[in-house]
Amino acid sequence: MVATVQPAAALKAESLGLVLDNTSFVPYYEQIVNRVRTLIKDNLLHEGQVFCSEGEIARALGISKMPVRQAFQKLRSEGLLIIAKGKRPIIGSGRVPWDFQQLRGFSEEMRRRGLVPSAKVLALDLEEPDPETAQALKLRLGEKTYCLKRLRFVNKKPVALVTSHLPVRIFLGIEKHNLEKQSLYHVFENVYGRKLHWAEEVIGAVTAGEEDARILQASPGSPLLVIKETTYDVQHIPIEYSVSLLRGDRYTASVVSVRKK
User: Tell me, what CATH number does 51's domain have?
Assistant: First the structure.
């Protein structure tokens, strides 16, 4: 779909309903970011639409440009604003940032960021695991796994194709649960009593094949982030091995590195 770009003059800062709460402990820039996220979520701002400049927002709010600039930087890092030198900002499609320092489920992370997650189950099959899966899950010879394939959405846009491999001996009967309406981590912890502890990820890059591109509504050959993740419970037992394909134009990885003395 090609987004319709509105003329720059069509959007006025005053029309955004931006109001700052001077009594709030939330910084001005965060208040601006939250308002713009809400406007995009409610389809009052659309991908490809020309946005206001920093100066216009600052004048409308009666503040300096600094907090507006901080807000723009934050929105840009999330892919919600596209800013090219010498041109007015444009509303973007939104690249979803993921913090690998925290073990959160997809739904938890997206809701924490004020986004709307959803999922569609594409397949749930009983299978003989391949050697890579068997090794990751430390399976005994002859053990089977469930292979759960889901398409993950953020604000109704497909961002990730996730294939989860789950040991049958741990998750017997998981097909009886609605895995579109509830978080898989929620099912792990609250249905099967498997308290999560940590996960090991291997991150790489691939290009989209025709089938994956079709499912993700991307172009064949477009870049995908691939994450192979083994999740462990508090007893250090591997309970899930997943392979996630994420659209490179809608997903970013966030890792904090600390230099040790």
Answer: 1.10.10.10
Supply the DSSP symbol for 30. Answer: H
The DSSP bridge partners found for residue 240 are 231
Distance of CA 92 to CAs 39, 41, 78, 249, Å?
13, 12, 9, 10
What is the bridge-based pairing of β-strands 238-247 and 223-233?
antiparallel
pLDDT digits (tens, 9 = 90+) for 203-233: 888 999 999 999 999 889 988 989 999 999 9
pTM above 0.70, yes or no: no
Domain that holds residue 229: 96-254
Residue 125: strand pairing partners: 147
- Characterize the bridge pairing of strands 96-99 and 117-127: unpaired
**41 class by beta-carbon count within 10 Å (0-12 exposed, 13-18 middle, 19+ buried):** middle
**Residue 70 to residue 74: CA distance in whole angstroms:** 6
Q: 193 to each of 155, 185, 233, how far by Cα in Å?
A: 30, 10, 10
* 100 shares a domain with 82: no
Q: Would the pLDDT of 99 be above 70?
A: no
6/185 Cα distance (integer angstroms): 42
Contact call for residues 46 and 82 (beta carbons, < 8 A): no
Q: Is the pLDDT of residue 168 over 50?
A: yes
Domain boundary among 68, 91, 114: 91
